[in-house]
Amino acid sequence: MLGPMAGARARQVDWLLVGSALALALLGSLLVWSATRPRLVESGGDPRAFLVRHLMNLAIGLVLGTVAAVVNYRTLRTSAPVVYVASCLGLVTVLLIGSTINGSHSWIVLGGGFQVQPSEFAKVGLVVTVAMLFAERRERDDTRRERDVPLLLALAAVPAGLIMLQPDIGTIMVLAFTLLSVLAVAGVSWRWLVGLVLLGVVVVFAAVHLGVLKEYQLDRFRAFANPQADTQGVGYNTNQARIAIGEGGLTGTGLFHGTQTNGRFVPEQQTDFVFTVAGEELGFVGAGGIILLFGILLWRTLRIAGRSPDLFGRLLAVGIAAWFCFQMFVNIGMTLGITPVTGLPLPFVSYGGSSMFANCIAIGLLINVHRRTASSSSPLVA
């Protein structure tokens, strides 16, 4: 009896999903170590300080992800409003007592080198809430109810508005893409989808011309539009990032042996530009391996969505897939010069506690949906 039960429990975990996420996080720890080691050695600090913190963040994230994975599925659905309210309260708190770092008022400093970024948890809150509301309303009425869309947009507008006040354009873009993806999978009319895209274009145009965006944010878009205009000024980050990746060639210079990385030519290399360390020191092979791991992660996420026994699980998994996919594309794209610099971290790889915690919670939610699928198809599992 123990054998079949153990096998049933093992089937409740998508090991490819967990393994790809864990491999990305462990690779990230090496890249973060390489990116921060030269500065710490020069200043006389512990060269492993960021490595230890990254691994601590991963350990805490694994605990949070495990909790998200084992919580009762029905409780997960009914607790969506609590998650939403908590994420909004976190965004309000950061506006009241938060600190401004790199031009964005997005952080709550806890001391001891630790900070919390509530906007990362807003991604989880929005995905869970939208999935729950759509599922609850559609299960009561199978007909398409387009009037659900304004309600969902109103709910999304609250965290989006609070994040805009920071301002954090990158997270706004993630939320918008995630919401649009969930609405598309939920069967919303194409007219709504086209209308929302056009609305987004109007909002961006208005934000630029009404002075909502700060000058450094506009500079990032100018550098993207004309990367060779000021390579020592607004275009410095992306120019150095491309040089670093170009130095790597096919197999890279070797871990800890990147000239651009050791010379600290690329700013924010342990966070926003961590992919440049992979490109320089691990080369095309190592950087391609990271993209392959993301491909496996997204494949398993979409597989979980396709096999979900209910609409809530399907929309939850699709929302997480859209979040990870968009953020990965934008982060890697800005190091290659094909997307503007937005300050989005590379999921699991970049240094940052809040990002790691939110990502691990998302993986836990996916495992929860997978467990529900396995339970509904196996008589051995209650």
Would you mind describing this structure in some detail?
The chain is 72% helix and 4% strand. Strands 1-2-3 form a three-stranded antiparallel sheet, covered by helices on one side. The chain has 382 residues and is mostly helical. It has one domain.
Output the keywords.
15 helices; 3 strands; globular; three-stranded antiparallel sheet; mainly alpha; 382 residues
Question: Can you lay out the helices and strands and say which pair or pack?
Answer:
Layout: H1 2-11, H2 15-43, H3 49-70, H4 73-78, H5 80-97, E1 99-101, E2 104-111, E3 114-116, H6 118-140, H7 148-164, H8 169-185, H9 190-209, H10 215-225, H11 236-248, H12 259-262, H13 274-307, H14 311-336, H15 353-377
Antiparallel strand pairs: 1-2, 2-3
Number of strands: 3
- What is the H-and-E element order? HHHHHEEEHHHHHHHHHH
As for the number of domains, it is: 1
As a percent range, the share of strand residues is under 5%
Structural class: mainly alpha
List the strand order in the largest sheet: 1-2-3
What's the mean pLDDT score?
A: 85
Low-confidence segments, given as residue ranges, are none
The number of helical runs is: 15
Fraction of helical residues = over 70%
The shape, in one word, is globular
